[in-house]
Task: structure prediction
Amino acid sequence: MKPKILDLFCGAGGATKGLQRAGFYVVGVDIKPQPHYCGDEFIQADALAVDLEGYDAYWASPPCQGYSISRSMQGTKGAEKLIPEVRQALIQTDKPFILENVPGAPLENAIELSGMSFGLKIIRRRWFELHGFDVWMLPSPRIVHNYRAEGYLPYHHGTSKKRGHLPNIWTLQRLKEAMGIDWMQIKELTQAIPPAYSEFLGKQLMKYLESLEVL
Result:
């Protein structure tokens, strides 16, 4: 039987897909309907109210807009800042978990991953706070001298009409290829992380869980 992990604030399942590839049975939770969710099960519920019993591990991606450096431009100054509350709830489970958010978020001893760490044509830096297990070696990011010339997509690509990046078929296809995602629509893509990030961390988490079974 596969270890069971709960993916809180799952969206359409960028993190979910990577956790599945790492070997987990993934249950996603989101307050909004997610018709394109790719996981094994989906629960539409408030992530802070869902039952946390019965899982081997947890992943949580609380809304990031309240921490993003672009929040003033995007009109998200009032976005919820849920990280401390989510952290406390997951600590109470006494199980390993991962918190994911944008650089600048109040994560503790966070590690950083980006598309450059996995050969993807998107930067999308993200921080990860790990509880209950460690990652001993991070993938080395590729050195990029000129992002535009080397075909990297900027973070906001396809999301801002003011900047002239209108969502279109070309943008959608480019984002899908850059992120390694083929099941999402444009808005879902701009809010997701590439599955490569969660697959890498999920494999480390899986090794930890397997070591507990041996002991």
About this structure: Residues 195-214 form the longest helix (20 residues). The mean pLDDT is 86. The chain is about 25% helix and 15% strand.
